[in-house]
Structure formats: structure tokens, C-alpha cells
Amino acid sequence: MKTVTLRFPSFNVLWEFKLTTNTSNFKINTLQLTLIAEFNDAQIQLAVSGFDAVVVEEKVA
Predict the structure, then answer these.
(1) In what order do the strands lie in the sheet with 27-29?
(2) Mean pLDDT in each 10-residue stretch from start to end of the chain (61 residues)?
(3) CB 51 within 8 A of CB 57
(4) Is the pTM of this model over 0.90?
(5) What is the distance between the alpha carbons of residues 58 and 38, in angstroms, rounded to a whole number?
(6) Which domain of life is it from (predicted)?
(7) How many whole angstroms separate alpha carbon 22 and alpha carbon 60?
(8) Rounded to an integer, what distance in angstroms lies between the CA atom of residue 23 and that of residue 36?
């Protein structure tokens, strides 16, 4: 698992991804449309390919 900051094209898309991945223990910045949480590689790939997210920052947890 990695702590990743993902930027989404809209808040609705961000929230849909959060619900789809059942993400808990997260931080959301509504102005920057970012979601910070621990994700595995498959979830990161889903965010990028399925939800048009951009990886802003990535840290190994």
C-alpha cells in the first residue's frame, strides 16, 4: 500500500471513486479536488484509467 494523492476532474468523480473503492481514513481537498489515502497499485490504476485521475504525489507507506 502507498499513500497517494490523486487529483480528479470533478468532486462527483472523486466521490464516485471513493465509494467504488470503499476508501476509509482519507483526506479530501475540495478546492484542489484531491483525495489522499492508502491505495494499492490496482486502485491507483483504476483511478487513472477509469476516473481520469492524476497521481500528484506517491509515498510508500
Answers:
(1) 27-29, 34-39, 2-7, 54-60
(2) 96 98 95 97 97 93 60
(3) no
(4) yes
(5) 10
(6) Bacteria
(7) 20
(8) 10
Cell numbers that stand for 46 in this block: 483504476
pLDDT at 4: 96
Contact 61, 42 (CB under 8 A): no
For the chain, what is the radius of gyration of the CA atoms?
10
Nearest one of 26, 29, 33 to 10, comparing CA atoms = 33
Give me the amino acid identity at 3: T
Distance CA 45, CA 50 (A): 8
Number of domains observed in the structure of the chain: 1
Expressed as residue numbers, the domain containing 15 is 2-57
